[in-house]
Amino acid sequence: LGVTCLDYLAQYAQNKFWVKPNQEQAFLYGNNVSRAGLGRITESTMRHQGVVVLNMADVPLGFGVTARSTLECRKLESGQIVLFHEADIGEFVRKEEQLI
Fold first, then answer.
1. Residues 64/85, Cβ–Cβ less than 8 Å
2. I need a surface site. Which of 49, 64, 89, 98 has the fewest CB within 10 A?
């Protein structure tokens, strides 16, 4: 899957992950998201589950895989990773020469 289908997948995704504004840019540069950047997460999301990543304004940013379940996220310290980066809308800019 590529990020071109992201708008359609975001509408129907069962699991969603919202990133706080202070972590948006870091995610768009290909970094994982720590607990400090977690805005919201769909209830009962399991560990290692694929999710659509959105900003707090519900704009789709990319795909990721949860490093922790919803329940585990509530108990973590702020520096621990909760989402592994898979793909994002910034990849077209970063890899423009390879795609053409």
1. yes
2. 98
Residues with Cβ within 8 Å of 98's Cβ and at least 6 positions away in sequence, in order, are none
Residue identified by tokens 């720590």 is 34
8 A C-beta contact, residue 15 and residue 50: yes
Residue 68 has a pLDDT of 95
Q: What global pTM score does this model have?
A: 0.87
Q: What residues contact residue 85 under an 8 Å CB cut-off, 6+ apart?
A: 27, 30, 31, 32, 33, 62, 64
Alpha-carbon distance of 6 to 57, in angstroms, equals: 15
